[in-house]
Amino acid sequence: RVSLPDGASMLITRNNLSKAVIDVRKLTATLSSRRAPAARSRLIAVTATAISLRFSSYALNRSFVVLRPPSQLPASGHHEFSVATINLLTPRFEQSPNYYPYVAEKDRQWSYRKPLLLKLITDLAVDVLCCQECVGSDASYSLAPDLEALGYEAVLPIVDQRRGIEKPATFVRRAKFEVLAVEHRSRLSLLALGSSMPVIFLANVHLQGNPRAQDVRRSQLESACRRLNAMRQRLGVDVESSSALFCGDFNEVPGTELHEELRGEVEGFARR
């Protein structure tokens, strides 16, 4: 229950949360127009409430599903390959107590999480591993040396010293694939992988996370499609001799319009 400056109160539930944010914003605008000292002092409290509700709306509308991956995937055959995608959750997580605050302090530490992640990756033994929130400016947080020792080629973007979300990184088993081409963008890592199979054009993505930014996510995916298609044309690979694979953190839940679009055919590539 939230107290409002006019003496009333509002009961906030999961069902009316979006409406509550709108109501608080309207009240904020009304108080701002009065110009009265009391109203202005109350405006600060209302604005803080609106901001708090906005973040609460984001948190409550996210669904959390615990997935238990298999302890190990079957070995891939001559014309098969295995792939996994993992959002590692930025190593800076341990420095951000407001980021998933319900996680215990010890569980936030990279020194605790890194061995668990390496065990999971080692047990899965996939041919291609797509990671998000992986590459940062601090080398002590990198998984690359450990995975290279396991036979992977680390396809890493150039580290950007500016703060922001870490860029995707991809690890490719050298015995399975040859990396033919690479292109990195802020939220995309694009690769062409050659083997005995048709060329695989891989997009490792970490799309915009704001729940209301579906248009931004669609634009990011369209950019990935255009760039992969351009990469295919530069390499001289025809449509029937290639496939496109999109992996990563889409920040999109099943049932949305964009999710259905993701299930459709990628322009410029054969559907398999």
Question: What report would you give on this structure?
Answer:
Helix 1 runs antiparallel to helix 2. About 12% of the residues have low confidence. It is globular and about 50 Å long. It contains seven helices and ten strands. The protein has 272 residues and is an alpha+beta fold. 35% of the residues lie in helices and 21% in strands.
Structural class: alpha+beta
Instruction: Count up the helices.
Output: 7
Helix percentage: 25-40%
Strand content: 15-25%
- SSE order: EEHHEHHEHEEEEEHEH
Question: Outline, from the CA principal axes?
Answer: globular
Gyration radius, rounded? 23 Å
Q: For the report, how would you describe the main beta sheet? A: 4 strands, mixed
Instruction: Provide mean pLDDT, rounded.
Output: 76
- The largest beta-sheet arranges its strands as 3-4-6-5
Low-confidence runs of at least 5 consecutive residues: 14-22, 39-61
Distance between the termini: 52 Å
Query: How many runs of DSSP E, i.e. beta strands?
Result: 10
Topology:
Layout lengths: L1 E2 L5 E2 L6 H18 L2 H24 L22 E5 L17 H4 L1 H15 L3 E8 L8 H6 L2 E4 L11 E7 L4 E7 L3 E7 L4 E8 L7 H22 L6 E8 L7 H6 L10
Parallel strand pairs: 3-4, 9-10
Antiparallel strand pairs: 1-2, 4-6, 5-6, 7-8, 8-9
